[in-house]
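May I ask you to review the protein record following this short note?
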Amino acid sequence: MRAVGQDSFGGPEVLKVVEAERPEPGPAEVLVRVRAAGVNPTDIWHRASGGLAGGDAPVRLGWDVSGVVEAVGPGVTTIEQGDEVFGLPRHPLPAGTYAEYVTSPARHLVRKPAGLSHEEAAALPLAGLTAWQALVDTAHVRPGQRVLIHAAAGGVGHLAVQIAKARGAYVVGTARAAKHEFVRGLGADEVIDYTEADFGVATGDIDVVIDTIGGEYGPRSLRTLRAGGIVVSLASPAEAYLAAEARPLGLRAAFMIVEADHAGMREIAALAAAGRLRPRIEAALPLELAAKAHEIAESGRTTGKIVLTVA
């Protein structure tokens, strides 16, 4: 099969299409014929340095996948051969979805809603589960709460806006002025141009902050919270220090890494099937242009998600 490989860590140019042996599903696993794979910041981190996995190159890139079940291993009861599925196999362990075929634990996948294309479905798992686990499992967002989402037009941000609205929250997003119309179209109640205004002054009485940026954004976000509020940092393990700053103020802070999550994927699929969660696709490029996809992703100016398609 064709897959994206690399002989060394580095920039997008290290990525290339190679021939690899097609995997076989083990117990409780399925083999998926990949139709599309999402591109995420964690892919770029692993390409450049090995990321969480560490070790030596090559690293098998890709976690988001949408495709068709080609074969079913022993003990699988939740999906069948021929099912169209999508999900987040094995994260945070390597999965290797930048390929024509990938194996996955069956319960890391769910059936793809008929109304979603494979490109749209591949854009949802990692970013959608990140937003879901941050808002619902970590912050326990309730109807009527005020939620501040940084980089609200980005991959995680634009899905977090939709999930927060589906949970009944009042949503404030930060984005450049050129993206305000897009963010409002997602359902945001307010949008702040972070290049022109200090969000810490422009908004307040926030219950939940989703910080996808890190650095100074964490401490500045604490200033927006009302008593008992929480900042959920998705940016870096270094942001864990925020908890110590938050406690004396009667606030909370948490650093979160997304996990493969069957129950969460079922919720994501249900929202998508109901038309309440839709990814924006910035670019869909063939597998052979994985390096170009990474170049676009590293620009830091994308709206929504980038996906790779597999013929």
The radius of gyration is 19 Å. The first helix runs from residue 41 to 49.
